[in-house]
Amino acid sequence: MNIFGVMDVSGSALKAERVRAEVVASNMANAETTRTPEGGPYQRHHVVFEAQGGGTFQESMANQLGGGSSVGAGSGFKNIYTGGISGGLSGDLTAANPTPGGVEVTGVIADASKPLERYDPSHPDAGADGFVAYPDINPLTEMVDLMGATRSYGMNASAITAEKSIFNSSLDLLK
């Protein structure tokens, strides 16, 4: 992980949660849409997230250590203290390597649930039997999803703020 690793990870989450909030907003906006260009009522959409870089923390650490699974003494990045954590860091820590732990949106999929049927013979989209097909969108479910996206966005923004504070504290120490 490079020096901006926290910002990379949290930035990817901010982007993903923004997409999630947009999809939820679209679902809420179209909760009563009975006519779409594809025909039929609007269908609820879901966001599919996927972890970037994959792997476990141990695999990520092993990759950063150049394939080794333990931290050897005496060589490499910097001896922190005698006999302690040292050496072995050999990967490119500053380039645009995929940051382990990030998230990306791999797709937005349509819900395959059946539309809700309501009797309203005066509606222009009513069938011969007087029923209108409405999207199967529950406003409470959408609000819970929106709150989840908002909370996750806030948590990741807080992580970026904390990282900024760490950078500022480090710069103050160097003055």
Automatic annotation (TrEMBL):
Q: Does the keyword Electron transport apply?
A: no
Keywords (alphabetical) are: Bacterial flagellum, Cell projection, Cilium, Flagellum
Highest rank taxon of the organism: Bacteria
- Where's the Flagellar basal-body/hook protein C-terminal domain? 129-172
Q: Name one GO cellular component term.
A: bacterial-type flagellum basal body, rod
Every Flagellar basal body rod protein N-terminal domain range:
7-34
Question: Do you know which Pfam families this protein is assigned to?
Answer: Flg_bb_rod, Flg_bbr_C
Which InterPro entries does the record cross-reference, listed alphabetically?
Answer: Flag_bb_rod_N, Flagellar_basal_body_rod_CS, Flg_bb/hook_C_dom, FlgC
Q: Name one GO biological process term.
A: bacterial-type flagellum-dependent swarming motility
The places in or outside the cell where this protein is found are: Bacterial flagellum basal body
Question: What is stated as this protein's family in its record?
Answer: Belongs to the flagella basal body rod proteins family.
Question: How is this protein named in the record?
Answer: Flagellar basal-body rod protein FlgC
Species assigned in the record: Tunturiibacter lichenicola
Lineage runs: Bacteria, Pseudomonadati, Acidobacteriota, Terriglobia, Terriglobales
